[in-house]
Amino acid sequence: MQPIVKLENIDFKYPNDEEKYALKDVSLEIQRGEWIAIIGHNGSGKSTLAKTINGLLLPENGAVTINDKPLNAENIWDIRKMVGMVFQNPDNQFVGATVEDDVAFALENQGVPRDEMLVRVKAALTKVRMWDFASREPARLSGGQKQRVAIAGVVALRPDIIILDEATSMLDPEGREEVIQTIKEIKEESNLTVISITHDIDEAANANRIFVMKQGELIKEGQPAEIFSAGPELISLGLDLPFPEKLKLALKEKGIAVPDRYLTEEGMIDWLWTSVLNK
């Protein structure tokens, strides 16, 4: 099966930093329908990598292929239509006077006929449970609601890939959970490929695979269980650990034997109940 995203030996430098590569020899493949999380400390190259995937940045060396199309001057606008991006601060993405106008804006720019536009706007807002707010001003919404409208604006464009660039980092836990749940539902309905650039380890735990970046290099990739089980190594990279892994380390320090395998919160509760509390 052909990957929907393929990067081969990507190098990239920003013009104002000629000495330092933001990306160094990065190669990866992402399959259609996967949820990928990209984690790493600030300055590790996560967001640069995302902007390379959607053609906002062109690599100095290497090749980018999206849905069998090479990233080049001829294909760049086709590729940008395939890849939608949701940023950290939804206020920076709003341009319409109402929620409905805002979701329609990009469709107007793409020349979508009005009848089809109305259908797409309603469908997208319904998917994120924001149709009842269609006539509201975006500025009057909560943080989680604003981000769901931003997601609707991307969903209405019907991309193959959605990139979440720290899209939940400014939200409270409730808002973060409702946005992640919204993305999960849309992904399952439309077989979307999701790429999450995140500091939130709990958000990363939703992924099929995790890529770990450090100083512009892809240093590790694997399933969440594999990545999170290397707890001290993640801490050394300046990253957090999921709560169950933190609890395992604390119990281990107290001399309690804990499983080597990665445990979700539900798995940790089951293990505590059956192996510790019932003894």
In short, what is this structure?
The chain is of the alpha/beta class and 279 residues long. It contains 11 helices and 10 strands. α5 packs parallel to α6 (173-190).
Number of helical segments with 4 or more residues: 11
CATH superfamily of the largest domain: P-loop containing nucleotide triphosphate hydrolases
CATH domain class name of the largest domain? Alpha Beta
Major beta sheet, strand line-up = 6-7-8-3-9-10
Structural class, from helix and strand content?
alpha/beta
User: What is the typical, i.e. mean, pLDDT?
Assistant: 87
- Rounded to the nearest angstrom, the distance between the terminal CA atoms is 49 Å
Write down the CATH topology of the largest domain: Rossmann fold
The backbone outline, from C-alpha atoms, is: globular
Question: Could you tell me the strand content as a percent range?
Answer: 15-25%
Unreliable runs, pLDDT <50, ≥5 residues?
A: none
Q: What CATH architecture label of the largest domain applies?
A: 3-Layer(aba) Sandwich
Largest sheet: 6 strands, mixed
Order of helices and strands: EEEHEEHEHHHEHEHEEHHHH
Number of domains: 2
Describe the fold and architecture.
With 279 residues, the protein is an alpha/beta fold. The chain folds into two domains: 237 residues, P-loop containing nucleotide triphosphate hydrolases (Rossmann fold, 3-Layer(aba) Sandwich); 38 residues, no CATH class. Helices cover 39% and strands 20% of the residues. The chain has eleven helices and ten strands. It has a six-stranded mixed sheet with strand order 6-7-8-3-9-10, with helices on both faces. It has a four-stranded antiparallel sheet with strand order 2-1-4-5, covered by helices on one side. A hairpin with a 2-residue loop joins β4 and β5. α3 packs across α4 and α4 packs across α5. The longest helix is centred in the middle third of the chain and has 18 residues. 39% of the residues are buried.
